Amino acid sequence: MTLGREFRKGFWRENAVFRLLLGLCPALAVTTSAENGLGMGLATTFVLVCSNIVVSSLRKVIPSKVRIPSFIVVIASFVTVVQLCMEAYFYDLYKALGIFIPLIVVNCLILGRAEAFASKNRLLPAVVDGLGMGIGFTLALFALGAVRELFGSGALLGYSIFGPGYQPLILMILPPGAFIAMGLLLAAMNLIDNRRR
Amino acid sequence: MKGMMRLVLALTMITVSAGLILSLVEAMTREPIAEQRRLETLRALQAVLPPADNSPDQDTVQLVTGQDKRGRDVARTFFRGRQGRTLTGVAFQVTAADGYSGNINIMVGVDPSATLVGIEILSHNETPGLGDKIDQPEFKEMFAGKNLDNADWRVKKDGGEFDQITGATISPRAVVGAVRKGLEFFRDHRSEILTDIQGEKP
Fold this sequence. Notes:
The complex is a heterodimer of chains A (about 200) and B (about 200). Chain A is mainly alpha-helical and about 200 residues long. Chain A has a domain at about 5-140. In chain A, about 65% of the residues lie in helices and about 0% in strands. Chain A is built from eight helices and two strands; from the N terminus they run H-H-H-H-H-H-H-E-E-H. In chain A, strands 1-2 form a two-stranded antiparallel ribbon. In chain A, strand 1 (about 155) and strand 2 form a beta hairpin. Chain A is globular. The relative contact order of chain A is 0.19. Chain B has one domain. Chain B has four helices and five strands, in the order H-E-E-E-E-E-H-H-H. The longest helix of chain B is centred in the N-terminal third of the chain and has 47 residues, at about 1-50. At the A-B interface, helix 4 and helix 7 of A face helix 1 of B.
């Protein structure tokens, strides 16, 4: 498999949220607006690439019997680094994402890539895989956040789209709206896939 | 047994290096984080206090406001802003525990006659897109110029004069209630808060 395919697979064919249905907890919880989705996606991508690098470099050192605790320690350390740096240097973003950052640790997407890809591949493919899957995850969160923000607050990235007369569909920014938007987007993706065939 | 030792060794190595890296990063970011938090308090103080030429975060009085569940005293800090020697305003933090989810922390600023200058929402976990509108200027600006005597301290839905937010009544109700309680505390303890204000302390 070429690096290009490895990179692109996360965008659609193996998209973490819509195809593998991984990392749904943060995907559903933070996507009340497009901006939050984007921030969470980028933070996750950073942790994913870093953890893939470390896991891939150490794949011959880590005994397979203790690989899961080792991966978790690596991931949790990177998440803490991200959290501290964000609080120190990007305080506004930290305040917006605050409670969701520790959630990155339990994002099964990251552990999943460490286990299924990085621990079995060399450094370069592991980096490419982390980048691709991370960007795919970010796109998915952005799409979910955009749909929910558009109907739930009538705005996109904070800019009003439908004007002041729009009666917001509050359900969309509440937790049930996350599941509804997710289901609709999934259905749309399946529809496109079926047409293509 | 030899295999076992290898597992222990590998895991120990990983956790020890993780610990090392984390303590390094923590040491590097400790100062900037403390500075950011101080700046945040200062920003909130500036927003809710009339113009002052001292550092209100240095000029404080602590008063006991009650006891927590274990009977320990809960203190509240009052930040005092002044121009020269004249007091221009007092700011203090109140907490609304009856919001939609979790505590809402609010910085309240009053002038010496106990009339509100402004409020700032310091932190909250209200529903994004609904209750979190308490953090928008239109909501916060309603409080300027209000005091215990010239306003009916309830949201409109309860017969008062504070606008609630479309789709969210609980969060504004909590904020209004907490600010009112803060003002009452200030009224009842005014002399203690303003002790040592005449004269000394430049």
